[in-house]
Specification:
With about 290 residues, the protein is an all-alpha fold. Helix 10 packs across helix 14. About 70% of the residues lie in helices and about 0% in strands. The two termini are about 35 Å apart.
C-alpha cells in the first residue's frame, strides 16, 4: 500500500475519502503555485484585449506580443541584463571564494569582527543603502570616477554579497586540512593549493552561490534605477516598469516581456541544478 508522508498527517489517513482529500489538496497547491506561471505563459502567446480577464486556456495563438516587445527595444534591455549579470556574477564568485578562503583557513586579528560586519550587511534593506550607494557611485573614492550612467555602475556594487561569502566560508571549513597539508608537502604553493585542492571540492557550493547570485543580480531593480540615466542603459526588470506605464502597450506585450525576463533564471537553475542539489544535500548532511 502506498504511503503518503505529510506534515498534515496524511500517513494515518486511509480509504477513499482520504484519497479524495489528498487529490483535492494537491490540485489546489498546484493551481496556487503554477496558476500565475501558466497565465503568464498563455497570455504571452495569446491576444489579451481585456487585462482583467486573463485565461489559463490558450486561445488565438499569436507571436504579435513578442514582435511588439522587440519593436520597443526589449532585446537591448535583455542584452544589458546579460552583460550586468555576467560581469557581476563573475566578480561576485571571485570575491566570495577569495574572502571565504581567507575566513575559513587564515587566522588574522579582527577576523570575527570582519565576519560580523559582512553578515551585518544582510540585515540592511536596499532602500537604506540607496542614497549612500548613489553618492559613492557618483564619485568613487580614491579614483574619483563616476559610474552613474554606465553598466559598470550596476556591476561593481554586486561584486560582494554576504550570502555567497557565508555559504562558501562554511563549506570550505568542512574541507579536510590534511589535503592541503599533503599538497604543500608536495611543493604546492598557496595559490596552487587553493585552485587545485580546495576549489574543486567546493563545486556544490559554487552551484548554490551561482544560482542564488544569478537570480539576485538578474532581479535587481533599485540599482539600475539609481545608475541608469536614459532608456539605452535600462535592464529588463527596469524596462518592465516603463512598459507597464505606457498606455499604448497591451497586456500581452507586457506578459511577453515578463516571460523573457523569467526564462534566463529558469535556464540557469536547470543548467546548475545538479550542483545546486549537491550543495544543499552536503549542507544538510554536514549541518
Amino acid at each position: 500500500m502506498n504511503r503518503f508522508d505529510s506534515a498534515l498527517g496524511f500517513t494515518a489517513m486511509r480509504g477513499p475519502v482520504a484519497r479524495v482529500v489528498r487529490v483535492a489538496l494537491y490540485t489546489l497547491l498546484v493551481f496556487v503555485f503554477a496558476g500565475p506561471l501558466l497565465a503568464l505563459l498563455v497570455g504571452a502567446f495569446s491576444r489579451v484585449p481585456d487585462p482583467s480577464r486573463l485565461s489559463l486556456v490558450p486561445s488565438e495563438f499569436t507571436l504579435d506580443n513578442f514582435r511588439a516587445a522587440f519593436e520597443r527595444d526589449v532585446l537591448r534591455y535583455l542584452l544589458n541584463s546579460f552583460i550586468v549579470v555576467g560581469g557581476g556574477l563573475l566578480l561576485q564568485i571571485a570575491v566570495s571564494v577569495s574572502a571565504a578562503y581567507a575566513l575559513a583557513r587564515k587566522k588574522f586579528p579582527g577576523m570575527r569582527l570582519v565576519f560580523l560586519l559582512i553578515l551585518s550587511t544582510m540585515m540592511l534593506p536596499e532602500e537604506i543603502l540607496a542614497i549612500p550607494l548613489s553618492l559613492v557611485l557618483a564619485d568613487v573614492p580614491v579614483i574619483h570616477v563616476s559610474l552613474i550612467g554606465s553598466l559598470l555602475g550596476m556591476i561593481v556594487p554586486v561584486a560582494a554579497w554576504a550570502f555567497s561569502i557565508l555559504v562558501m566560508t562554511e563549506f570550505m571549513k568542512e574541507v579536510p586540512v590534511e589535503l592541503e597539508e599533503a599538497a604543500r608537502m608536495d611543493g604546492a604553493g598557496e595559490l596552487r593549493v587553493f585552485w587545485s585542492v580546495v576549489l574543486p571540492l567546493c563545486r556544490p557550493a559554487l552551484g548554490v552561490i551561482g544560482i542564488f547570485g544569478f537570480t539576485m543580480i538578474w532581479d535587481q531593480y533599485m540599482l539600475p534605477l539609481l545608475v541608469a540615466q536614459d532608456a539605452s542603459q535600462f535592464t529588463l526588470p527596469l524596462a518592465l516598469r516603463t512598459l507597464r506605464s505606457d498606455d499604448q502597450v497591451g497586456v500581452g506585450v507586457l506578459l511577453a516581456a515578463a516571460l523573457l525576463a523569467l526564462l534566463p533564471s529558469v535556464i540557469a537553475f536547470l543548467a546548475m541544478q545538479r550542483q545546486f542539489m549537491k550543495g544543499l544535500t552536503s549542507g544538510a548532511v554536514k549541518g
